[in-house]
Amino acid sequence: MSYDPDEHTSSSFTYISQMGVWWIVLVVAVLTQTASAAVREYHWEVEYKYWSPDCKEGAVMTVNGEFPGPTIKAFAGDTIVVNLTNKLTTEGLVIHWHGIRQFGSPWADGAAGVTQCAINPGETFTYNFTVEKPGTHFYHGHYGMQRSAGLYGSLIVDVAKGKSERLRYDGEFNLLLSDWWHEAIPSQELGLSSKPMRWIGEAQSILINGRGQFNCSLAAQFSNNTSLPMCTFKEGDQCAPQILHVEPNKTYRIRLSSTTALASLNLAVQGHKLVVVEADGNYITPFTTDDIDIYSGESYSVLLTTDQDPSQNYYISVGVRGRKPNTTQALTILNYVTAPASKLPSSPPPVTPRWDDFERSKNFSKKIFSAMGSPSPPKKYRKRLILLNTQNLIDGYTKWAINNVSLVTPATPYLGSVKYNLKLGFNRKSPPRSYRMDYDIMNPPPFPNTTTGNGIYVFPFNVTVDVIIQNANVLKGIVSEIHPWHLHGHDFWVLGYGDGKFKPGIDEKTYNLKNPPLRNTAILYPYGWTAIRFVTDNPGVWFFHCHIEPHLHMGMGVVFAEGLNRIGKVPDEALGCGLTKQFLMNRNRN
Amino acid sequence: MSYDPDEHTSSSFTYISQMGVWWIVLVVAVLTQTASAAVREYHWEVEYKYWSPDCKEGAVMTVNGEFPGPTIKAFAGDTIVVNLTNKLTTEGLVIHWHGIRQFGSPWADGAAGVTQCAINPGETFTYNFTVEKPGTHFYHGHYGMQRSAGLYGSLIVDVAKGKSERLRYDGEFNLLLSDWWHEAIPSQELGLSSKPMRWIGEAQSILINGRGQFNCSLAAQFSNNTSLPMCTFKEGDQCAPQILHVEPNKTYRIRLSSTTALASLNLAVQGHKLVVVEADGNYITPFTTDDIDIYSGESYSVLLTTDQDPSQNYYISVGVRGRKPNTTQALTILNYVTAPASKLPSSPPPVTPRWDDFERSKNFSKKIFSAMGSPSPPKKYRKRLILLNTQNLIDGYTKWAINNVSLVTPATPYLGSVKYNLKLGFNRKSPPRSYRMDYDIMNPPPFPNTTTGNGIYVFPFNVTVDVIIQNANVLKGIVSEIHPWHLHGHDFWVLGYGDGKFKPGIDEKTYNLKNPPLRNTAILYPYGWTAIRFVTDNPGVWFFHCHIEPHLHMGMGVVFAEGLNRIGKVPDEALGCGLTKQFLMNRNRN
Question: What is the predicted pLDDT for the residue at A299?
Fold first, then answer.
């Protein structure tokens, strides 16, 4: 066994020693002999700290004083236990384990208002779940816009101990990508909720593993004189980039994930090809690319072979696509250890592809197929939703709506309402399953006024569900925005993408039913549609929402529920708010 | 009966009409005949709004979209019901009814962590309490530093209907004084909790009824050229001052209260005498003054007779004392209706007395005696605490401590812990009842390191308690700060003030036992002591703390408990956090 201090087997010594160390040692020894899966227990405290993610100081939400939060590294089959203590002053808190399906533990999904109540200041809540398969994942806050405040970190699951990884590589790196604003999050939330709405604008910086550079560039020597100056950070500064040190003629796995609030990104490594091998925790058919698009909520692994001049270093660039960029490329360095780490690359960093070349973007998405041997989707669906994405107005407040309903999550978490049949917890009428087929997606909404709602879509257990997400024009002008839709509790197959309105009975014929990729995030392109399919095999209540943080804040999500009579025990600690509080306080009364 | 829409009797129509209007009308009619006390029910929603309290826009915590929150006006004996809905995104919320003793309703005192759990976002909590005697009061947030965020308003109780007010006046005004910072509250809280501590500095503006002017002056015409320019606000702007319109040769009652985060204030009305008649909701022996000191947590009524030239207007000035000021005087206008409201006064506003003339400050406090016929204090105390106020360090974090303990309120409200005997809710060991008598208050603490704690002082029911608060030097330099100490659940008699260290057995002889004022806030002057006395006649758990918001945030408070076996029913809704949540969820289990 490993003596990784994060493993429960070793940390037990610290916490249970008074109870009799020798007895524990015996039990642990026996367990270690009989099971390869470990329990990895963490004690985390979340609080604000002053931090300088992009060399400018601000308030950042930290885990155990770190930003980004500590990386969880586990093996498939391991159990993760996180004792999460809220050290904030007045704010509640949850953490969502993005990409983890939470089979049997829907209460641990960490979506406030959906699967649990927010953890109150001063309280500790214990997440306990199994990571059942290998993959590149992350975790993040899922209450208000706390993800944007910096509450995120990586969650990496390797193949189970004793099993072999099918990918071949000599080393690995983990790059968690995010975007960063100088405006504090409560202020951003207020602006978005105001009449008229005040938009947050484009990010000040892109961060790579929580590090970026505002108003300066690592590649200033290639800039013309109107451009950015050289950065002046010192080694060891919080905004100094993490340099990737590599040996020549090796293959590295680079794990990428994006927890941006808004930005769609493109990453390239100067002079190097990338072989894309994993998407959202699922192996895909490898393909080679010069650069990779990555949207908020997505993760990838790419293999990079260090086959270039080993006396040089190379830029890694991350730029904005999909929206007109107003944020400088983030840069770091791929350092061949045969060259001095301080040596700057000899040519400018890769240019990010044009932001509005959506054909290029779509073509990238369409290159992704599941790996051979991956499960195929059922051939037919039993239930189908067609979800129109629109920007709307409610009493002059700007909102996003799905089939004309802008989601407001209730004070009582759905999981509690359905578990205990609290009929007033949310509106039991399902929201519309489709939209008026005469709706013109190419124009602004003719009747922009809409309503809020908290109804959900309830599915039978173990049926196949198709969801078509349908894009449309926004309130003003001729723009349709990109929306990365993320589903909790599931991987889904991405059956296809199309332009314009989805044509039922016709567009199904274009589906890829042979090797569609399994993912947890799918991209909806401007004026187009995206079709996904999944099986309702995971009893629980699952959020499905645009992963752009301000869009979700403005109502852009729906909620799915399935297998409701198969939901197991939900710890009382997950349910101490709204109607569940009253119910649990009174349940044993006569 | 009145048809004030705030009264329950009339608002009942709205809320219960479906149940049978006529039956209700009958009941109401009967009640109105037989009881003069009303139930005043309010529905309040708290959320952030953009607001410009001092002409500069920021995020302000509003009640029903107003800042300051709505004024509650009631008659003695009325019952106040406030249904408080938290519309914030991720923050909890409570409201404290400052000056209301909450006899029989200790759970409604609104001190988070002491008498209740914070109200979660999306939830509604109902406060229900009686205002048993007339007085000038206010309400404010009491969780984190939400008071500083703007969560406050006035609570005015008139003499019971049918009884006559002993003061004679022709009209009244209400001036709620506060101070205002441009730095957002979460950022202030972070700075105070950081190592090294970042102090919030002096306020940007003083506000009169939520209105102030930053970087300009209503009296610019009297300034020399290095001074502030004339203000450019327009009538109707959120920062335009409220002008007091008066008729000549009348007497007005001006109700003053201060909910400042930090500032000690002095108010004067140009050319007019003030007759001070009420302090903290208790009649006092009237005395005449040119200006009045008012500290955070205090309230006063003053009578002003409009006996000056009725063709002129007069400045009302509010300036900072007690700390070296770096905040412009707040100004508004006393307008004789016989003069145009827009006419500026013909001479400069009153000059605020020197900030560090503490003898003047103490002399003002010492002019306050209870009104004839007020209850006298018991002649002897049964229990006594001597509470040393010091600034300290804990692991390099700056804190305030009382007898070397810096208070950290627990996640479980004390009232719940004592009501249900939850032994782990807080440390059952009482904090020290005094301090080392060789401690030198004139020098910085020789051993600045201290500890945090959450123990409380438990008193028997119906005994007389003396508390001596003792000031001392701060960590650095030769300064001792002013601390206005506020007690919840009680009025207390202020028996005396003294310089230097309180000398037991000697200084008691200086006590005023004849006509000491009854108050809920007492001032502790630099390097001095203040003695208060109260009777533990109100079963409950009561906060006693420095009313300076950042000082409380840094631990400057203690908690008293009394009559614990006489505490009545506490609504479950007040207790849904920490150990009370677990307890209430499991109490009926076998």
Answer: 98
